[in-house]
Input
Amino acid sequence: MGEYSHDPVFQNFIAEAKTHGVVWTLANGEDLLVVESVDFEDTDVMPFWSNQEAAQLHCSDEWSDYKPEAIPLDVFCEGWLQEMYDDGVLIGTNWDESLNGPEVEPREILEALALVQ
Output
């Protein structure tokens, strides 16, 4: 497993996503929220949350035009993760109100989800 295998925020994201079969991103029409990484130079991060309420908390200030959008977990795993991997985009998992949280490689999400029964 990757470096986040024991991170409680990451593990909560994986457990809730697997349980509910959905992840949440922020969308403004066709535009999806993508931000610059705080950990890696010249790298984009697309944040996802494991529940709608946590995603909704971020729809304020500069992101007030965005709304939570559900993505079925199978669609996320079978399409989105591969595309983000190909594009070199990291995944922000369950960021808190200060935008703190793991920035994870797409393959780590797939590996972690595969381990959850």
